[in-house]
Specification:
The structure is a homodimer of 399-residue chains. Helices cover 56% and strands 9% of the residues of chain A. Chain A has 16 helices and 6 strands. The model of chain A has no long low-confidence stretch (mean pLDDT 87). In chain A, α4 packs antiparallel against α5, α7 crosses α16 and α8 packs across α12. Chain A is an alpha+beta fold and 399 residues long. Chains A and B meet through α1 and α6 of A and α1 and α6 of B.
Chain lengths: 399, 399
């Protein structure tokens, strides 16, 4: 093999291992083929698991024929595939050239193989392919690279075919690797979504026990995420990706402890007695008890436990003050208070949005942490369409 | 570079991409080094993120010195690391040999660099290293390979150093790739555990509303998994990994709809009126309503919805019969019934284990699907220590 091919191979192999998108990989490989072997165009059929056939993934070339991507497919029992996979038919597993088909035609043109050979000829001609290189992973044919004319018009030599075979086998491994990483990433995304949806569904079902709080969990979660987004704009929150993930879970679960409060108290349509109030005020700690053996939930628990603390120390259950209150809890506390103020409750009807905002302004530094109140007021302080759009954008960026 | 090195490089690179365990990769690379360059031993310092220093990962060689793995570490500010990373100090980034240190000593031995050079000499001597090859990813020093004497006693030549440098850079990429895959797999395992723990915690908290069913969810889940394991031993259940995952979630959530049943009915210490019974019997459908927008839950929903169907069509909510009842629901139905029989309920006290098993035998083919009843009886039918152990093994294999 020519030294220059070896360098190309090494360089490409080294790039390939860090590319984790199949399409990008295939483009890189075809670019390498076109540049190194100097062909007019090149393309690849890749086995598509879900369709159980081979489809053209990318076809590249500066001049000449362009194969329409995605539309063209080859069935597993077509002569081109069987040429490489069918033990009875296989003449060589390394490559198939148009010239070789011509030789086969001369030799077997009057035998039962005639039809197969004519179909092969038709296949290659259709794609203007002068050479096909199979790419195997163990015994599975993963794909077939096809190349058009060389720019100098000559036939492909041993050296080139050797280079292309090694490149094809490297490509298969890089594709397997990329496929694995893509699959793991997909699985993670699916699991994350399933987790949040399940937690959200269960939280809502528990919330439904409390007839006064329909939609509360969802709204508190949304307000919390918007507030956090604003805070993070001004001073970067440490380990932001994890913070926002924990905040979302904590907001969804902040009232989970209410499952431990009797329905009669939750739904009492009058003012609560001190004893009843004491029972309700246990809900943050009940929430912690429900969730506290989950190893990854230490921040989440801080949010659940302290979402009724007040900046001036007047809250519960721990009477934390000022900076003692974890940020995650301060954010949920404000979101929770705002939603409570703006919805009807057993003992009073809803405040208007303006009145609730005024209440938050007045309690900045008393009930609410100043930085959290500021972020809230920045997001919700003025009621106009532009703000709403901006909040929508913040939500999208943390989702 | 010698042709044989190029072949070794290509072969190793091709193996590396499919290895996803860092330790296995490092062993492969050191094996390649020892075989190709014919050295007495070789090892590697790898940067350890959590410790922020370099540790010896593996040291290999048939003869001579063996470096104790894991114990030996080099700090980031040691001369050996700074030789490759400190712009002010760097003489060459490609390699560092003992001979080169001797030359440096002769040249700079009377300058302020003396101490650094002596420490370098000491470092290399300590590991019996004749040559060090750095491995960079972009500008980060990921590791340093070190090699002992060549078996033929000669010095390392340009060719060998070139080969080792390319191998080191390939190794770094393979390690990054393996690290990414390991991390994704870890993340998936953590997320799965967190998901199950959270669902389990929430399910238990909801169950706690029903004073008669403490621990019920957990036991039904365990019985269900053991039964499924037995069935799968006799006839392979299709898509087993997904089946067992769904079964676990469905068993945890089978009674989730009870959240929609008033506490007064759930905890009524007397027989229920027909109206009250009708309300309780809504719980499978309420469960479905809570969970039905979760895309991945189609099998889970079948389990939740139909866990009160009976094989003879006498159950609810859909009066399914025989093979119409999804397997996942038939398994939970039996596990649920057995646990209900063997625990105290408002209207009757618990049956003995023997009586409950007899009940299940008698209702095989009536209330319970025959194959599920058989699997249950196989697992729990005889009460002896061996059975318990066997069930423990089945549980472990499905967990």
């Amino acid at each position: 093999m020519k030294i220059s091919y070896r360098y190309d191979l090494e360089k490409t192999a080294r790039q390939m291992i860090l590319i984790h998108r199949a399409d990008t990989l295939i483009k890189l490989i075809l670019r390498t083929i076109i540049k190194s072997v100097k062909v007019r165009h090149a393309g690849v059929f890749i086995y598509d698991n879900s369709r159980d056939e081979y489809v053209v993934k990318v076809s590249r070339g500066h001049s000449g024929f362009k194969v329409p991507v995605g539309f063209v497919k080859i069935k597993k029992d077509s002569p081109l595939i069987r040429y490489f996979t069918d033990a009875k038919l296989s003449f060589s597993k390394e490559a198939l050239s148009l010239d070789q088909i011509k030789r086969l035609r001369a030799k077997f043109g009057k035998t039962p193989l005639k039809k197969t050979i004519e179909e092969l000829y038709f296949n290659l001609s259709f794609y203007k392919a002068k050479l096909c290189i199979p790419a195997f992973f163990r015994n599975d044919l993963i794909g077939i690279f096809f190349l058009g004319d060389k720019k100098n018009g000559r036939a492909f030599n041993r050296n080139e075919i050797g280079f292309l075979s090694v490149l094809a086998s490297d490509a298969v491994m890089a594709l397997k690797n990329a496929g694995l990483i893509e699959e793991l990433n997909n699985q993670l995304a699916i699991n994350n979504r399933m987790f949040l949806q399940t937690v959200s569904a269960l939280a809502s079902s528990i919330e439904a026990k409390d007839r006064y709080t329909s939609g509360h969990t969802e709204r508190v979660t949304e307000f919390s995420l918007v507030i956090a987004g604003r805070i993070n704009k001004h001073r970067k929150i440490k380990d932001w990706a994890k913070f926002i993930k924990d905040l979302r879970i904590a907001a969804l679960l902040h009232d989970i402890g209410k499952i431990g409060v009797p329905e009669a108290i939750l739904n009492k349509p009058a003012a609560l007695t001190p004893e009843e109030r004491a029972i309700i005020e246990k809900h943050p700690l009940i929430g912690v008890n429900i969730l506290n053996h989950i190893a990854e939930f230490s921040n989440v628990l801080a949010g659940v436990k302290h979402h009724h603390e007040r900046y001036n120390g007047g809250g519960y259950p721990s009477q934390l003050k000022g900076k003692q209150i974890p940020l995650i809890a301060s954010i949920i506390a404000l979101a929770d208070a705002y939603d409570a103020m703006t919805t009807d409750r057993p003992y009073r009807s809803a405040l208007s949005r303006e009145a609730a905002i005024k209440e938050i302004q007045e309690n900045r530094g008393r009930q609410f942490a100043p930085s959290v109140a500021d972020a809230f007021l920045e997001a919700y302080g003025q009621i106009d369409k532009e703000k709403e759009k901006e909040n929508g954008r913040v939500m999208a960026s943390v989702s």
